[in-house]
Amino acid sequence: MIIVHHLNNSRSQRVLWLLEEMAVPYEIKRYQRDAKTMLAPPELRAVHPLGKSPVITDGDLTLAESGAIVEYLADKYGRGRLAPSPGTPERVRYSYWMHYAEGSMMPPLLLKLVFDRIARDPMPLFVRPVARAIASRARDSFVDPQINRHLDYLEAELGKSAWFAGPMFSAADIQMSFPLEAAATRGGLNESRPKLWAFLQTIHARPAYLRALETGGKYELLR
Ligand SMILES: N[C@@H](CCC(=O)N[C@@H](CS)C(=O)NCC(=O)O)C(=O)O
To answer: What b/e string do you get for 175-209 counting C-beta neighbours within 10 Å, with b at 16 or more?
Structure first.
């Protein structure tokens, strides 16, 4: 039986969604973020040394890193439905987006989260103006322009085909959902980028996505 080690409000939501799309039975072990630090609890380190989510176990295998998990599950249980055939141009695109989501798009979105928090969180009065000035400079000069460049690029890419890897919905769309949801929460993604916005509305209406939300529980991305 596949076990999904699921942290609330996290990337493991897309693993639940993928499993629902494939109608594969699975079990969930739940972990709660610390309300103050938002970090995962130490018990997750007993499953994988990094203590991050998602992690799955499938028999003897313990696998972390959402892209690796999504690829593994789609290949093993998808019966060709959620991954383009090897050797096709769609498969190359599929692999590209699978890596791009965490390797290229999440880093500026993570920086955005960190600098927004530095600017917002309580801190001693005497350091506050300096901290806020540094956060503001980093956001204006680097983080926000980087996020915008990614969003412009993605908007153009979705003008080429209905889904990220091509005409077929695939696990790459599931992998790409998290950075796009994060961008809608804290990166300024809105209706002004109609293709990306429509992508989000379409995936949010998929029955498997909705079932995964019911199973996973409240899903609010950090800001
Ligand atoms: N690149 C990793 C990132 C894993 C990651 O940072 N997960 C977050 C949840 S979205 C986490 O576990 N945060 C809690 C913590 O770092 O303690 C992946 O895609 O799986």
So the answer is: bbbbbbbbbbbbbebeeebeebbebbeebeebebb
